[in-house]
Amino acid sequence: MLVGERQRMIVDLVNEQKSVRVSELSKIFSVTEETIRRDLEKLEKEKKLIRSHGGAISIQTPDSVEIPYTKREATNVLEKKQIALEAVKHVETGDKIILDASTTAWYMAKTLPDIPLTVLTNSIKVAMELSKKSRITVISTGGTLLSRSLSYVGPLAESSLDAYYVDKAFISCKGLHLERGISESDEQQSRVKQKMMKIADTVFLLMDFSKFGVQSFSRMGGLDQIDRIITDHQVDRQIVQQLEERGLDITIS
Predict the structure, then answer these.
(1) Which of 50, 132, 190, 251 is the most buried (most CB within 10 A)?
(2) For residue 64, is it within any domain?
(3) Predicted structure pTM score
(4) So which residues are the signal peptide here (predicted)?
């Protein structure tokens, strides 16, 4: 297969699936991962896709538009479940915690034991999952419903958070950049998560390997606003070292 033909097919695959890993492309085209990285670098320069850590993202869907919940549920499922299992280990009886509207937070809600806790969330799915556990008190932010993510955002969601302080916040993001901090694809979600971080004693960032090195649309804050990152074993160890050098606590699930 000619190089140009392979690169055209890569663009088609990325646009169809919205995101693809380097390892997957390497197997599909029977070339080395280094060859795929060179292809992606060239295609990014031609503005045909966006490189992310470990793969590429389509530019056909604007970054400012949220990915539907059903699609997020099917992305990096194993990694998200591993991260959720590790995160639950940091929850203690009597804690007051925040869970955001990410799929990882939903997996965390499914995994939490039925112990005395207070959980503040802007996620319908998280609230519904925790409603099955009688010893957990659930507080919803209310606000404007985003049907794509089944979450509440907007002024009411933001102002409701001002009434509380919590022990721990477990939140996710669309990207973590060493220089530009953490970011979200949706500005309204970003503002809610900024509030969540502000009212928590300890902020846990839950993110799989694909989010590292990514800069998304709306900046949530700097790395100094995070206390601990929980990620999966596919994360680049060089990035982990760089984050640890900046004083961040990294847990690999």
Answers:
(1) 190
(2) no
(3) 0.73
(4) none
Q: Are residues 208 and 135 in the same domain?
A: yes
Q: How confident is the model at residue 63 (pLDDT cuts 50, 70, 90)?
A: very low
How many structural domains does the chain have? 2
User: Per residue in 174-225, pLDDT tens?
Assistant: 999 988 899 998 899 999 999 999 999 999 999 998 889 888 888 999 999 9
Strand partners, 204: 170, 228
Nearest to 167 by CA among 206, 139, 130, 199: 199
Structure tokens, 229: 């990152």
| Closest CA relative to residue 63, chosen from 221, 176, 216 | 216
Query: Distance between CA 250 and CA 253 in Å, rounded?
Result: 10
Same domain, 51 and 75: no
Residue 63 inside a domain? The answer is: no
Q: Where are the alpha helices (DSSP H) in 57-153?
A: 69-73, 77-88, 103-111, 124-130
Provide the CB-side half-sphere exposure for 22 (13 A, CA): 19
How far CA 193 is from CA of 8, 200, 205, 238, in Å, comes to 38, 11, 11, 27
Residues 147 and 22 in one domain: no
Which stretches of 25-174 are assigned E, i.e. beta strand? 50-52, 55-57, 96-99, 117-121, 136-140, 144-146, 151-153, 166-171
> Which domain, by its residues, includes 38?
3-57
Same domain, 48 and 103: no
DSSP 212: B
DSSP state of 216: -
Answer yes or no: are the C-beta atoms of 102 and 126 closer than 8 Å.
no
